[in-house]
Amino acid sequence: MSFWVDRGHPGRGTIEPSRTAGRWPGPAERSKLALRGLLILLVPLTSMFGLLISAYIMRRHMGDWQPLPLPWQVWLSTLLLVLSSAGFEWARRAAQVGWVDDVRRGLLVAGVLALAFLASQFWAWRELQQAGLAVATNPANSFFFLMTGLHALHLVAGLMAWLRTRAVLAGRQEPAAIQSTVQLCAWYWHFLLAVWLALFGVLVLMA
Predict the structure, then answer these.
(1) Strands 2-5 and 13-16
(2) Which residues, at least 6 apart from 183, have a Cβ–Cβ distance to it below 8 Å?
(3) pLDDT at residue 133, as a whole number
(4) What is the architecture of the domain spanning 25-206?
(5) Contact between residue 154 and residue 193 where contact means Cβ atoms under 8 Å apart
(6) Looking at residue 2, what DSSP letter applies?
(7) Residue 33: per-residue pLDDT
(8) For residues 175 and 80, what is the distance between their CA atoms, to the nearest angstrom?
(9) What pLDDT is stored for residue 34 in this prediction?
């Protein structure tokens, strides 16, 4: 993009695509830029969850640590998130070949299962509190609520991206835009699944 000034009227000008200074990015280029932005975002998120897991492992060796019995809802949450990620993968592959109906079905399944995941998380937190295992009871409890709550917060952000993806689909955008948006949403969801599996593995092994 470049800015040119009318020599006869120096106070006036316009912004337009320039053949010499650059050109408008096409759908493929916009998709690559968006993917690069997503990868840049995932780097600090990976570091944050990695540091949290490291702190959990180191803190458990202190004398006031009492292992937390994991509620069975955590296993249900894991299954729901795996199926939700599979729904996003279904939608992503359907978007690549232009099967819009399958994209809609995949997104719907993924979103419903994601909401069920959040519901199972709230269920687990409530069960722990009713059992007298609140956040401040001991450090193990605090870490459990912090780790699962932080992950749930990022999943809520993912649901906002899911809503935007459904809006793009409902707006009958061009196939390239649909494919790019669904792909980004699916990959972010796969990242959330990988993070959850890491958290879940640590919690099970250290319980």
Answers:
(1) antiparallel
(2) 31, 35, 92, 95
(3) 82
(4) Up-down Bundle (1.20)
(5) no
(6) E
(7) 75
(8) 29
(9) 72
Which CA distances in Å does 29 have to 34, 35, 46, 188?
9, 10, 26, 19
The pLDDT of residue 28:
54
Question: Splitting the chain (207 residues) into consecutive groups of 10 residues, what average pLDDT does each group show?
Answer: 41 44 52 77 92 90 82 95 96 88 92 96 93 82 93 94 84 75 91 96 85
172: left (phi over 0), alpha (psi -120 to 50) or beta: left
- pLDDT of 145: 93
Q: What sign does the dihedral 175-180-181-183 (CA atoms) show?
A: positive
- 24's torsion region: left (phi>0), alpha (psi -120 to 50) or beta? beta
Evaluate whether 94 touches 102 at the Cβ level (below 8 Å).
yes
Contacts of 50 (CB under 8 A, 6+ apart): none
